[in-house]
Specification:
Largest sheet: 2 strands, antiparallel
Helix content: 25-40%
Shape: elongated
Number of strands: 4
């Protein structure tokens, strides 16, 4: 009967069904347990107009730290480990708009995401680098 009561205890139910619920009530230091890659920084709040050569391989910066925007210069290796450039080869010569905010849903091309309030209110990569 004692076992039955302890299993009906709300604290036991919470800890059994959600073991992390008990962790929130304990006082402990905050630890990052995520294996997700880092978030990109916003290199520009506008897209980059670029002339692409058909058949040539390009590496579009996904981290936002490159000094050769919108293309990769390898900065992700030290500033955004876990992110890698997006490599692509256009089929023909063309003029395109490549994303500068790094939050496009159609990488590497701009889809207008930079117009969102989230992007417009966020600091640019240089601004956030100076603060840290």
């Amino acid at each position: 009967m004692n076992i039955l009561r302890s299993r009906l205890d709300p604290a036991w139910v919470r800890s059994t069904l959600n073991p992390w619920a008990m962790m929130t009530s304990m006082s402990c230091s905050k630890v990052m347990l995520s294996t997700l890659p880092p978030e990109p920084v916003i290199a520009s709040k506008k897209p980059y107009k670029v002339e692409l050569v058909g058949g040539k391989r390009y590496s579009w910066c996904t981290c936002g730290h490159s000094k050769k925007q919108p293309f990769c210069d390898g900065s992700h290796k030290t500033k955004a480990q876990g992110l890698a450039p997006l490599r692509f080869v256009p089929e023909k010569d063309s003029t395109v708009w490549l994303c500068g905010c790094k939050y496009t849903n159609n990488p590497p091309f701009c889809d207008g995401t930079h117009k969102s309030e989230f992007i417009q209110c966020s600091p640019l990569a240089e601004e956030s680098d100076v603060k840290s």
